Amino acid sequence: MDAIRLAVSQQKTGLRPSDFDALGLHTWLGAVSEVDNFCWPDSEANWKSRNNALINIGLHQGSFLRSYEKMKSTFGAARIGVVMGSSTSSIDRSEEAYCNLDSDTALPHEYIQSKVLNPHAPGLYLAHLLGSSGPNLTINTACSSSAKVFATAKRWLSLGLVDAVVVAGADTLGMSVFHGFNSLQLVSENPCRPFDAKRDGINLGEAAGFALLARADDVDEHTNIMLSGYGESSDAHHMSHPHPTGQGARLCIEQALDIAGLQTTDIDYINLHGTASKANDLIEGNLVGSLFGKTTMASSTKGWTGHTLGAAGILEAIFAIEALQSGTVPGTLNLEQVDPDIDIHMVAENRDSDLTHVMTNSFGFGGNNACLIFSKYP
Amino acid sequence: MKNRNSSQEMRCKILSVGAWGSDFTNWEELQAKLLQKIAINDSPVTKAETSPAPKPSIIPANERRRAPLPVKMAVEVSSQALDASGLASPDVACVFGSGLGDTEITDYMCRAVNTESRQLSPTKFHNSVHNAAAGYWTISTHCMKSANSIAAFHETAGLCLMEAASQCIAHNEPVLITLFDTKAHSVYREIFDCESDFAAAILICPENMITETPPIASLTLQTTVSNIPLPELINGELNHLYQTNPAAKILALLEPLAAIKASTEQQTSQATIKISIAANLALSCTINPDQASHHQDQFAS
Q: Active-site residue numbers of A?
């Protein structure tokens, strides 16, 4: 969190130019270099993957584990849910295994990892690290994955299925992600420029994020932030193109406002999905502009992080929560001139403001949409 | 420690079921198989028949050609359950679940990125997302409700059921649960012993919802700490599928459900499905013949 705060305050991007020889692509990346140096102890080698290394590093940041241990001793390990969101899971490890396939058909010995080469890998590994034995699943809805984890957690808590939930998101850079997005002609050779007239595509990034949720009346200490609303919807339009009028996105925003009992005018700041792709920003920008008018501030933080896919939901929830707590609305890095075809109140530079309710949008392949609203606890 | 060992109950109704596997193509066929008492030792060792891949007509022809097998299976069973429920797809949220995902596409992508050109097909790339089935379903049926896509390895069936029931109750709306896993690609066969294809869909609705089609049963779910080993199926022929295909873990619930319609005795039955790999946490399912539909049946006869 300290690094995010510093990067926001200094308007310093985490994106770097790619190594063309390694990647086969000219682009900019939000890579986490600590992952390259992560050492797996022998006893844990069966969990080895880049995505799991990122989860391990992320989980040990700040005071998260201390808060979790306190909840575990209060409620017991079986009463804490673990809801992970991911798109790539540990496909990085499969890609690596295929460099070394035995006679083209068999996984080499060190890749015989059933708990890593399946789509629930990040959820399993997180539960393993936490020593949690409660309900544990991974939501794999592409780029809305780790926004939807909050919706699931809120339902489980309100129905009394569990007493606390660790929600998380983790996605890692890998070859299939780069070359997949490149095949759709969505990757920019330059630093991404969300909502700018000259934007020309996305940068990819990797991230892991974590949050601990409980019913407010069950805990003595908390952040003073509550998850007041969530919305989930489908575009019913196309696997990889957004709905042309943003109808699906509108439905999830309306559901989130409805659950929170708020009006559009109550929302002080929106952390947009804002990938810097031509289509997303045009459609999302005009939808948000038409729904929220000029009174709500909006920005995209993908200029700091790149598009972290299945981790973007929770990462941007954290940006929104940090804005709520610090009173600093992050700007939109690399935004010089808002696209004249987009009618929206964008914040380009950081701005200080007293915020009460903030929103974040996440949209994924398959037309899968999610929207979250966080509020100061009254 | 605050003493909350078990969760509150979740109650809903089961409206309809869809099913497709290597030797059954709908719920009625699977139902008949589930009711056959075959001891495991007696089960034939001959290779099971393989049904031709389903061709769900609900997917537009252009898209259907590009849809991979797991998507076709998932959409087929979803379509069966929706048709039998009498509900309209725009009113039904959905929770899709697959324990292994599409290992054929995983194999394709991992091979392609290890070639010199590293080129991927854009269609295969967008089909590679775990929520491809949910995407094809919502696109084909114009459903703009929430669509989930869940992986929980061998516990996928239990967690999808729990997640879907919690959505059904929290939002007071019907929810389609679709579980599907295809046989693992040969490269993954050493770690996943899933050798046959299976898909099933269950459409649930809130307890108080009035539906034109009478519900099959009412369902009460509760998380429970249980040391009871998972049951074996009455039909030993299905046990291997049940044990190795993550989606097929739902057979533990479908077996008593199959018995309900066949039986004239209206009795309560129980099923248990695991929801945590680390502990004995399970979802206990209590299945009751639906009172309203039972009365309707009596009235009709």
A: 143, 273, 307
